[in-house]
Amino acid sequence: MAQNKAEILVGAVVLCVAVGFLAYANSSVGAVRSTSSEYNLTASFRSVEGIAVGTDIRLAGVKVGTVTGLDLNPETFKADAELSLNKDVVLPDDSAIIISSEGLLGGNYVEVLPGGSPFNYEPGAEVVDTQGAVSLISLLMKFVSGSE
């Protein structure tokens, strides 16, 4: 009988921990999916090599958003990216969006270089000042071949 009470007590503790974990996970996912705290911008790049949906967008090294969509534009043959930024990050309308590398072996991320304009991007606007990914292999091949 004492063994049954111990098993019931352990089962109750495990059940409480599981319910607590599920409640925490649900609240975390709800906070992430909340779109009221974000706004979208679009940008076209010559190359989005190393970038995927979910890639970080950083301003001064701090994450301020994520890439939410990537599509090929059949008219311009450029990659159109949809960027979701935190509402509290207001960008001047002459800001630049570039694809940067974390290092030789690191991944790529989207970097925001803020401009100095007194006017800001409106939600849904297109960023025209962009720079695509620079391929490390291409740079090494140019160096090895001696071409400029």
From TrEMBL:
Positions in coiled-coil regions: none
Source taxon at top rank: Bacteria
Pfam families, alphabetized: MlaD
Ranges that cross the membrane: none
One GO process term, biological-process aspect: phospholipid transport
Domain Mce/MlaD stretches: 38-115
Listed NCBIfam families: OM_asym_MlaD
PANTHER family noted in UniProt: INTERMEMBRANE PHOSPHOLIPID TRANSPORT SYSTEM BINDING PROTEIN MLAD, INTERMEMBRANE PHOSPHOLIPID TRANSPORT SYSTEM BINDING PROTEIN MLAD-RELATED
Name assigned to this protein: Outer membrane lipid asymmetry maintenance protein MlaD
Natural source organism: Qingshengfaniella alkalisoli
Gene behind this protein: mlaD
